[in-house]
């Protein structure tokens, strides 16, 4: 990746690599910055180099046996357990919340020595109409409720309606809001409009943390992905998220690497910390470990914790539980023994 950031560097202090860890460890919400095109406008991402880098992730670093189980437990803590379907009902959401409270069977927790650990998923993510149900079902658990909003998944509703949807979800008790950006602003290069849109959404979120969904499969190039990530962070996004899970192409490792490096650049040049959430198509324990390796290698240990990293997933937990059961018993069970809701 290459960039021209002379103007940005003159405007903001550059953070050295040794300072990244201390900043992340004591991070607060991303406050955002002024709109600074010099921080991203000349960025060009090399697709071939990005693909070569991500192709080696799972081959250069492997985790086995008890270490693998430990990594998978951490993956569970980072899952936004999600249901975003037209047939969602209060009962379905309540069952999902019960799973979020107790993501592993008691016998597996005991075998791992984690019966008193208090393991939960990172959050539960639902539509705004289901927020109140989730809040009630998760009361006292410490598991936050996330809600998609702003005309999810396309984001093609009037701005006043998008902001009203945020206000409704927050009013129902949502702790986190996953907004969708207008892809047309990216595809036409109207970065100022994207900044103003995301900034308005951040203000509407109030105290709720905001994740900006870029729908990277619709942004055409990795350079667009980088720029959209940077603008969303400038506008105050607490997380940048790959996808709605409903595009033809969702989370991929090359896209994720591009976004993760934009987070690193943003931190270096502003001192502000931002989290990352890949979503859509991450279904296996092997997938989860690949993304955890990416985060550890590119950003460090603070980004393999739920404060700064989440998986958006509905079926991932089932495969992780199945893999942990294999670690404990030496046998694979059938997938239907690990249903979600």
UniProtKB/TrEMBL annotation:
Q: Which Gene3D superfamilies match?
A: Aldolase class I
Main location (coarse class)? cytoplasm
A GO cellular-component term linked to this record = cytoplasm
* GO MF terms, alphabetically ordered: deoxyribose-phosphate aldolase activity
**Top class in the EC scheme:** lyase
Record's catalysed reaction(s): 2-deoxy-D-ribose 5-phosphate = D-glyceraldehyde 3-phosphate + acetaldehyde
Q: Where can this protein be found?
A: Cytoplasmic granule
Keyword match Cytoplasm: yes
Assigned protein family: Belongs to the DeoC/FbaB aldolase family. DeoC type 2 subfamily.
This chain belongs to which protein, by name?
Deoxyribose-phosphate aldolase
Which organism was this protein described from? Oricola cellulosilytica
Gene behind the chain = deoC
């Amino acid at each position: 990746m290459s960039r021209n950031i002379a103007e940005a560097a003159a405007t903001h202090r550059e953070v050295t690599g040794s300072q990244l860890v201390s900043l992340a460890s004591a991070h607060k919400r991303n406050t955002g910055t002024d709109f600074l095109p010099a921080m991203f406008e000349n960025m060009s991402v090399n697709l071939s180099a990005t693909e070569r880098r991500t192709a080696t992730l799972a081959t250069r670093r492997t985790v086995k046996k008890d270490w693998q189980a430990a990594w998978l437990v951490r993956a569970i803590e980072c899952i936004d357990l999600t249901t975003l379907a037209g047939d969602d009902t209060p009962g379905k959401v309540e069952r999902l919340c019960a799973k979020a409270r107790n993501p592993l069977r008691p016998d597996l927790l005991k075998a791992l020595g984690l019966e008193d650990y208090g393991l939960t998923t990172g959050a539960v993510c639902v539509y705004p109409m289901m927020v109140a149900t989730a809040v009630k079902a998760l009361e006292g658990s410490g598991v936050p409720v996330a809600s998609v909003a702003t005309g999810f998944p396309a984001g093609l509703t009037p701005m006043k309606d998008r902001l009203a949807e945020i206000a409704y979800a927050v009013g129902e008790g949502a702790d986190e809001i996953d907004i969708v950006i207008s892809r047309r602003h990216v595809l036409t290069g109207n970065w100022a409009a994207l900044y103003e849109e995301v900034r308005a959404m951040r203000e509407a979120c109030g105290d709720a943390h905001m994740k900006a969904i870029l729908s990277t499969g619709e942004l055409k190039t990795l350079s667009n992905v980088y720029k959209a990530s940077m603008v969303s962070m400038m506008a105050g996004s607490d997380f940048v998220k790959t996808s709605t899970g409903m595009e033809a192409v969702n989370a991929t490792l090359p896209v994720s690497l591009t976004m993760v490096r934009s987070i690193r650049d943003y931190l270096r040049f502003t001192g502000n910390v931002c989290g990352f959430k890949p979503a859509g198509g991450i279904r296996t324990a092997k997938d989860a470990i690949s993304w955890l390796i990416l985060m550890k290698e590119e950003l460090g240990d603070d980004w393999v914790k739920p404060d700064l990293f989440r998986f958006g997933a509905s079926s991932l937990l089932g495969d992780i539980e199945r893999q942990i059961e294999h670690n404990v018993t030496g046998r694979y069970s059938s997938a239907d023994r690990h249903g979600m809701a």
